[in-house]
Amino acid sequence: MALRSIRLEALLDSPQAYGSTYQECLAWTNRRWRNVCRDWNYYLAERSEHVVGVVSGGVNDRHPGTLWLYGMYVTPRARGTGIAEQLVEVVVEWARDQGVSALHLQVAAPMIHARAFYERAGFRATGDVVIMERDPSIELATMVLTIA
Predict the structure, then answer these.
(1) Backbone Cα Rg of the chain
(2) Is the pLDDT of residue 108 over 90?
(3) CA 42 to CA 4: how far, in whole Å?
């Protein structure tokens, strides 16, 4: 339920940033949320026993052999505290453990603060831009971080 809560908060806070919608995820059953927790690679950040951030690492079927950072979110009250950096680092460590030399992500054009954060974290734009499937008015810029 912790993942459900932070994910729904993220979708309300920044709906243009994600490939799914609040209404779509709100309709998921508890069983579906349990399956997501079991089948997907999510990391949660906690402060004072409250979940304040989430990120996921996974594959991208359009780019075989690559690993991606997905669904990054930090609740407003925890922004600027280092939580975002810690969430990125845990996905970088996961990717490193998988034996890859790069971690990719896509950031929605309206999310200028997110893109600036990723640039500070070492991600660089690849020049690849795709259109978000659920909302063709939103462009997604692909970024990559080289890891040792």
Answers:
(1) 15
(2) yes
(3) 11
Place of tokens 């659920």: 134
Coil, helix or strand at residue 89: helix
The overall pTM is greater than 0.70: yes
How many percent of the chain have pLDDT more than 70?
Answer: 100
Please choose, from the candidates 77, 135, 76, 147, the residue with its C-alpha nearest in 3D space to the C-alpha of residue 105: 147
Tell me the two tokens of residue 127: 């020049």
Using DSSP's 3-state secondary structure scheme, residue 10 falls into helix
**Domains located in the chain, CATH noted:** 2-146 (3.40.630.30)
List the one residue out of 6, 4, 1 whose CA is nearest residue 52: 6
Name every residue whose Cβ is closer than 8 Å to that of residue 64 and which is 6 or more positions away in sequence.
Answer: none
